[in-house]
Amino acid sequence: MKNEIEERFEDWKGREAIPGKHGGIGPASIACVVEVMENIVFVANGFNFVEYFMSSMHYSPATAANMVTNFMGTTFLLTLLGGFIADSFLTNFTTFIIFCCLELMGLILLTFQSYSPKLQPESDKTPSTLQATILFTGLYAMAFGAGGIKASLPTHGGDQLDRGNPRLISRFFNWFYFSICCGSILAVTIVVSIEESKGWFWSFTISAGTLALALLIFMAGLPFYRFKSPTGSSLTRITKVIVSAARNRNKSDLDEEMMQSLTSTDEGISHTKLKCLDKAMLNKNISAIEVAETRTFLGLLLIFFSTIAMNCCLAQLSTFSVQQGMIMDRKLFGSFEIPVPSLVVIPLLLVILSIPLYDYFGKGISSDISPSFNLNRIRLGLALSSFSMVVAAIVETTRKYVAVHYDFKISVLWLMVQYLMLTVADTRASRGSDKEQAPAKRT
């Protein structure tokens, strides 16, 4: 939006940032490297947890799946907390450091538990109170940490680049998504394979070591970063606008000067929808920019709510689909057994290949994309996620029928179809979320 809240950038000593010395492509690239390593940790454990809870902690399949979805849901909900802290009180750099240390402490706690037999339940029992306390403390320390990282790291990378160059910003987020996919591939191949061959202790140890290295790499860029001073959270401003509009709903309309200020704030925003918010400007402490920001945020809520069902489908990749694969025939090329999470590699490779191709060939067409293009991407993602559940139901029905009537395990490769459809659905919906229409802040 035009006339956005003024942004001020500083170096690590609190002095005004110098263009060419602070920020730029190099420091932004560090965020991409760190994201690869952090996502290795998050994705590997996200896929491994359901088996860990069943085999080592002796929870039932239903309880294990529920624990994983609670962990994932908590992680992504806590991105709101991380964004609020970074916007209102701390820089994105400081927020990342704090939450990364928190996730690392959770991993260390889980590593220690996986190493000590005394902290694990006996073969025929569920965890004791102490054992469960250690497990859930480590698990939710990871959730808090990962949530804060996901809120602060991409924004920190974007802050290193010139906001006046939207093409450069767009390319950064394309390559940041590329980093997410690379981390996911390494997670579901290398780390998952280590877990199957070496055990949980080594899996958690490698995860903790990888995250610690990511933290050191991120901190090494300190002299080259530029830092944006906190200017307040969007959620605070949006709440203030809504409350003010509600209080002033019965008052007279805005005068001509206020209407002129509102309509000139941003030519790209429709001023015919949610006109009830305009009366918030009767409060002299609320600006036209804040009203426009609130209108945009409320318009995006419908898109947000529409993706909830899709994310319920995506949760099956790390829960039910993993449990399915564990009782299917995983042998390939003779005696080699493929880890179930590794089935997502082929879809992720397709995504990875598409990003540099789009970055290279998309320069000439990106400006010609119609406003409905990104919404159509989201619609495609939602449709594919629905069809993937139909496919998953057919595969599970077939698996059970063959197992009961023929005492035979069907190949785990049957799961590839739903993995492919869900991965493409997630990609389409994620890339279809047009950040150009989002509020200036995350929270």
UniProtKB/TrEMBL annotation:
<feature type="transmembrane region" description="Helical">
    <location>
        <begin position="408"/>
        <end position="425"/>
    </location>
</feature>
<comment type="similarity">
    <text>Belongs to the major facilitator superfamily. Proton-dependent oligopeptide transporter (POT/PTR) (TC 2.A.17) family.</text>
</comment>
<feature type="transmembrane region" description="Helical">
    <location>
        <begin position="200"/>
        <end position="225"/>
    </location>
</feature>
<dbReference type="GO" id="GO:0016020">
    <property type="term" value="C:membrane"/>
</dbReference>
<feature type="transmembrane region" description="Helical">
    <location>
        <begin position="132"/>
        <end position="153"/>
    </location>
</feature>
<dbReference type="InterPro" id="IPR036259">
    <property type="entry name" value="MFS_trans_sf"/>
</dbReference>
<keyword id="KW-1133">Transmembrane helix</keyword>
<dbReference type="GO" id="GO:0022857">
    <property type="term" value="F:transmembrane transporter activity"/>
</dbReference>
<protein>
    <submittedName>
        <fullName>Uncharacterized protein</fullName>
    </submittedName>
</protein>
<feature type="transmembrane region" description="Helical">
    <location>
        <begin position="93"/>
        <end position="112"/>
    </location>
</feature>
<keyword id="KW-0472">Membrane</keyword>
<feature type="transmembrane region" description="Helical">
    <location>
        <begin position="297"/>
        <end position="318"/>
    </location>
</feature>
<feature type="transmembrane region" description="Helical">
    <location>
        <begin position="64"/>
        <end position="86"/>
    </location>
</feature>
<feature type="transmembrane region" description="Helical">
    <location>
        <begin position="338"/>
        <end position="358"/>
    </location>
</feature>
<dbReference type="Pfam" id="PF00854">
    <property type="entry name" value="PTR2"/>
</dbReference>
<feature type="transmembrane region" description="Helical">
    <location>
        <begin position="174"/>
        <end position="194"/>
    </location>
</feature>
<feature type="transmembrane region" description="Helical">
    <location>
        <begin position="378"/>
        <end position="396"/>
    </location>
</feature>
<keyword id="KW-0812">Transmembrane</keyword>
<dbReference type="InterPro" id="IPR000109">
    <property type="entry name" value="POT_fam"/>
</dbReference>
